[in-house]
Amino acid sequence: MKIKVQGSELNRMMKTITQCIDTKHQIMGNICVIYDNNLLTIRGTNGQFAAVMSTPVLGGTGESFCVDGTMFARVCSMCNGEVSIETDAKTCTIRGAGRTRLPIVNVNVPNYERVTGDSFDIGASDFSKAYGGVAYAVSQDQTRITLTGILIETESEDSIRFVSIDGFRMAVENIKGRFSETGMVVPAQFMKLISASTFTGDVIAITTNGKKIQAETDGMLMSCTLLTGEFPPYDKIMPTEFKTEVLVNADLFRTALKSSGVVCSTSNLVKLEISEDKLTVSGNSEQADYEAEIPCTLQGNGLKIAFNLKYLLDTINSVSNDSIVLQFNLPTSPCVLHGKDDTGLRLILPVRVQG
Questions:
Q1: What is the mean pLDDT of residues 174-185?
Q2: Which of 149, 165, 247, 343 could link 174 by a cystine bridge, Cβ 3.0 to 4.6 Å?
Q3: What is the average per-residue pLDDT within 221-242?
Q4: Hey, CA dihedral for 188, 190, 191, 193, is it positive or negative?
Q5: How sure is the predictor about 285, in pLDDT bands with cuts at 50, 70 and 90?
């Protein structure tokens, strides 16, 4: 094999592949590099995730070989501009920023097995927006494995819903599409990988057979095992009626919350007081007190309520809208918020405080 490929394209491919290999495993830490019919393909798997990345190149006859995936990625990351890859019976030589030789390993990286089943198409920008809207509320608790994933299910005939819950917050995003599968829980890490590996103009074909999920674009093919276990009945958690509704400017609200955290850095508690025409944000610690008033539009009753500052900021930052609607019932019941005219919803639990 003797081919030439752009270093930027090679690095893009390897950023995805290295997320799908197991560096601690003798076989699954390796990747398979394939050249055939003017197409360079790199394949890797860790048993749960699998990825195949391809790009057009010019070169000689078809050939394949296996090398250590981590070392191959490190060498590629040093290369700028055009990169030359050559092989002989025992080594792979990479020329870009100097010349590096890597030993070819005699292992068989498992072949990629396509997933066949129910499928739908989604634009990469829509996918990234929906994923970005729910990613913050994915649980990091590995003892509650289902909550480390994102639920994808049919919302209506032409709408698909993404849902995440971490026990303190919940996020819901709706996107256009059709999907006959009743629902699946996808590892959030895999969703992140799809978002990072696609471009704005790409169309992603999502396929599932009930046990695995596959994402495919022109030049990318990835799959992973779905999470098992029952996802919480989120529709029973979300309130449907509210006694208080507030419309507030997102930037002003976000700035006040950040300022509260700076001034009262030892405290992670923020208090909101809602009156007829203003939302008061306040915080305190042993060193300082902070208070800011933001104009708002109120429907219903005034209210005093407190939140974990980080959780509330994460929730606000996930909304891509100039205006935010906050809906309340009691100081001890969940707050629901969303961007004005948005179809997505966010839920956050308050913090109980004395007085």
A1: 81
A2: 343
A3: 93
A4: positive
A5: confident
CA quadruple 325, 329, 330, 334: dihedral, nearest 10: -60
pLDDT in tens, 240-249: 899 999 999 9
**CB of 76 within 8 A of CB of 82?**
no
Q: Is the pLDDT score of 181 beyond 90? A: no
The neighbour count for residue 166, using CB atoms within 10 Å, is 18
In angstroms, the CA 268 to CA 350 distance is 13
Q: Which tens digit of pLDDT belongs to each residue from 126-139?
A: 999 999 999 999 99
Helix, coil or strand: residue 262: helix
Question: How far is Cα of residue 281 from the mean position of the Cα atoms in its chain?
Answer: 30
Cβ atoms of residues 56 and 37 within 8 Å: no
Residue matched to tokens 């999470």: 227
CATH class of domain segment(s) 2-103 = alpha beta
**Domain regions of the chain by residue span:** 2-103, 118-237, 244-348
Helix (H, G, I), strand (E, B) or coil at 347: strand
Question: What per-residue string of b and e applies to 192-218 under the rule 16 or more CB within 10 Å gives b?
Answer: bbbbebbeeebebebbbbeebbbbbbe
Residues 6+ apart with CB under 8 A from 101: 91, 92, 93, 94
Half-sphere exposure of residue 300: CA atoms within 13 angstroms, side-chain side: 14
CA distances from 232 to 134, 244, 334 (A): 15, 26, 16
CB of 185 closer than 8 Å to CB of 150: yes
Note the CATH number of domain 244-348.
3.10.150.10
Question: Percentages helix, strand, coil for the chain, rounded to the nearest 5?
Answer: 20, 45, 35
Instruction: Say if 2-103 and 244-348 have the same CATH topology.
Output: yes
CATH code reported for the domain at 118-237: 3.10.150.10
Give φ, ψ of 48 to 5 degrees: -95, -45
- With 0.70 as the threshold, say if the pTM is over it: yes
How many Å from the N-terminal Cα to the C-terminal Cα in the chain? 74
Tokens of residue 129, six digits = 């927006």
Task: Classify strands 323-328 and 244-249 as parallel, antiparallel or unpaired.
Answer: antiparallel
Instruction: Give the CA distances from residue 255 to residues 9, 126, 264, 284, 291, in Å, rounded to whole numbers and listed in that order.
Output: 39, 27, 14, 16, 12
